Amino acid sequence: MTFRGLFIGVDNYQNPGFRALGFAKRDAIALHALLSDNYPGPTSLVLDSDATKDRLLTEMRQLGRDSEPDDFVMITFSGHGTRTAELATHDADPARLADTAVRLDEFTELIDAIPSKRLLVALDCCFSGSALAKVLPEPQGGCMSRSSEPSPQDVLSRITGSGRLIFTATGKDQEAQESRTLRHGLLSYYLIRALLGDKNLPSDGKIRLGKLTDYLFTKISSHRLELKNEFQEPRFGGWAGDLSFPVLRAGPRYHATGDSWKPPRITHAFSSLGTYGIHEDIIAAWRQKFGKLNDLQVRAVNEAVLLDGNSALVSAPTSAGKTMIGEIASLRAVAQGRKAVFLLPTRALVNDQYDRFVDLYSAAGVRTIRVTGELRDDISRLFKGSYELAILTYEKYIGLLSGHPELLDHVGVLVVDEIHALALPERGPLLEMLFTWIKMRKRRGHALQIVGLSAVLDDADGLADWLDATPVRHEKRETVLREGVIGMDGRLVSRAGPGGDRPEDGEERVEQFLPHAVSSFDQLPVELTARLVEEGDQVIVFRATRHDVRTTARSLARRLGLPSAKTVISELPQGDDGQVNDLLRECLARGVAFHVSDLSDEERRLLEQSFKQPESGLRVLVSTTTLAQGVNLPADSVVICELEHPGTGERKYSVPEYKNMAGRAGRKGLTERGRSFVLAESPLEVQRIRQEYVLAAPGPIRSALRHTATDLRSSVLSAFTGPVAHLGRLTDEGIEEFFTWTFAAYQHRCAPSTAPFPGPSLSTAVAQLIESGFLEKSDSGLALTRLGEISIRSGLSVDSIDAVVQALKAVPDNGINRMTLICAAHLTAELHDVRFEQRSPRPDAERKSFESELKRQGVPEALVARVLGTRQRNGSGHGCARSALACLMWTRGMALSQIERAITLMLPPTARSTGPVRQAARRAADVMGAVLDIAAHVCPSADLGDLPDLLPVQLELGIPKEFVPLARHTERRIPRPVYLSLLREGFETIDAIVAGHQPLLLDVAGGDNLLLRNLLDAATAARAEADRPDLSDLLPLPVD
């Protein structure tokens, strides 16, 4: 007797119409190893891309030719089946199953051709309509199989002969399930257990096929899958007869697969994580800080089998402990020698998480880095792999990955916070490209664990399915939230959400919350907040615009008359105050603050930390909605004034966005419950908001690529770069294939509607990209040009880059200078800011003034005309020039108050809102790298000098070029007011600082000895760098 075996496992399919599986390969690998340990003989293990239709048919025909009647033959297939009775091989195409998959009747004929009288076939797949509804089109008429073909059960019943038995995983209309806990398909798992002599399988050292069928039916049909609570019933064909074979033993091959290890379940005790190799110091730190794991965290680890490398999509309310789930998965990866990357939507969140991770994990030797595009970034350590945990913004990581796909090579876990941003038109397309890259990379065998953290989603299953992740949904909050809507008449309609255990929780309440009606809408947040503060609450007030934030904060400060937040005022940076800073001090003097991007990073961080400290005296914080994006800043009550995005054609907030803001109410461990209030202008508005937000489900998450505002051209460029850059030149068909892997295409397959990427629209986008120089076409296909690379790596839109290109083409080589580059940067849509568009009562005089100054700064006339744009009769349109001049002055080290005065000279004193100078400079710093690259490409003969090294840093920090070497060598960031103080005191060069009088320098450093030491060390290092010889100093003079 000779044993012959064929073991096939397909996790990853060539066509995205088939969902990736998690354990089909493991099924085949484990069964192959176990049988090989016990039976010497020819076997074939065929996995993923090798498991094509041709390969399967070839292997089956070979078995038919080589087998003898006395041989023992075993064939297993783990993968997808189809509703039309085919086995889906790796290269199967859902649109052409008859040609590309293996028909079940054909498979059965090949089995019949195998002469062995001891034949065992296990098909761990299903042929149900429900299982494949999301990946395959419904056959005509909704039939379960083709009219010309028999059903799967009819086909399998043709297997005849004693000792020839075929198992299928499911009956009609059932799904063949995979278990993340068991790490197998159910049929394969229980088959392995049976072959190893499970105690529940009667035997005397032998396995009888008749008993085996009973065992498999009982075990599989009684198994309830985690999360889904679904079941399946296997089916059998053929006749077992009295055939038996010895119980198998687990040998070295099987042990080498690790199949005998099963992930242990954890409890609420942090100590239960110790079995996963997480450092004991980290577990001790978690226990000290958090006490124990909460229900959501335990469920995520156990149900998603997170610590065995499985992906998860965690959908839960604010403050539910989602971030901790990502940390647990990451530290497990670190224990296994892999790295973890956290992606967050904002720099503020990155900095917040970075500080927390360093405090929590550095003692255990875990190295944490951050990269946001700032000077102090740890980007060199990212490229060297000198880290365990890396924290980045979405845009920065995706930009880096586009040019350096190898950054993913050693990453084991990718944690994406606020993953529901996938649906936002501003950020969604970029995130969707990232996940599409990862999916295509997985197809080549490079799997990456994804942990997505989201607000509560209504249809998390769809997104989870696309991400190949397990959905973990949790709606109960740690503290009860009572959500309400209040009108100008002072009447409040409210209800408590999940989490409470009081009889009144969940019931609606109507009450006269304010003693009297208010006369204007702007008065409503003031009177409501006053009532809440009287009750002892700490309050966050959300306003849609920065202007409304500032005016509301000033009104609240005057109305409430709270004690001064003296400690906060004393810790504010001094020496570079502008109008916004003056207003902040005025409000803080009465216990109120506001949080907007106009403030410096140091100021925002101070306000966030102070609001968490009861002794700070800060009782009310007014903010734009960015504060709701993950910064851990809860309050007793939250007031939401608007539910529409400003400046977007009145695009309404989504339900998750609303829930994120409302969810800031309620402080775990400090209050039993929180309260949120949405403001309404009329009783009808109260009812509308109540229905659309308070009582509403989050609604379906929809791919942002399907949004009408999305520019398809930028997404097309993504098909050529990042982890799919190995594809090289692409044809039109290759681009279309790339888009079939997107979330938009997945949603179209699930619910067919208008195709998201019809061929003509892609062809048009490609043609436009070729015409504008972003793609080049040759006989071998399409490829990115230098401009295409700049676009995808910078994140700038195609139109923005084209605007800069056209502007710089009109500039002579000797016209490329600092101000020219700043002006070119301001032609991008990313730098446009309506807050600089102030209307002057003397528009012609202002235009002439700006024009004259731009020319004096060396800006060529053609570029000046683009910056100023078409003359507007109403006096607007000068915002681009105003912002560009502000950025120039910022890089010269001018005080903020001087800059504000200079750019508003032509505005009336009552209307001198300057625009956010700091933010404009920061945005220009982000864009400047791309502008410099474009300049080098468009004007290759221009001498950029040291501008690439100096200008981005000057824009970021607001310092003159002489201080850039100093900034590069500092161990910790030196605040801008210190640089300005150095200038005021005459320390204008590095040499002057090195030789400076230390008591005076200590005064410059605000009496901070550590800052002074940092300053002097940096100056010494910068001086040493400047004293290094140039290459020309070391090379001999030419002799020929």
UniProtKB/TrEMBL annotation:
Database matches in SUPFAM superfamilies: Caspase-like (SSF52129), P-loop containing nucleoside triphosphate hydrolases (SSF52540)
UniProt-recorded name of the protein: DEAD/DEAH box helicase domain-containing protein
UniProt-listed InterPro entries: Caspase-like_dom_sf, DEAD/DEAH_box_helicase_dom, Hel308_SKI2-like, Helicase_ATP-bd, Helicase_C-like, P-loop_NTPase, Pept_C14_caspase
Signal peptide annotation: none
PANTHER family registered for this protein in UniProt: DNA POLYMERASE THETA, PUTATIVE (AFU_ORTHOLOGUE AFUA_1G05260)-RELATED, DNA-DIRECTED DNA POLYMERASE
Organism: Streptomyces clavuligerus
Gene3D superfamilies noted in UniProt: 3.40.50.1460, P-loop containing nucleotide triphosphate hydrolases
Entry's Gene Ontology molecular function annotations: ATP binding; cysteine-type endopeptidase activity; helicase activity; nucleic acid binding
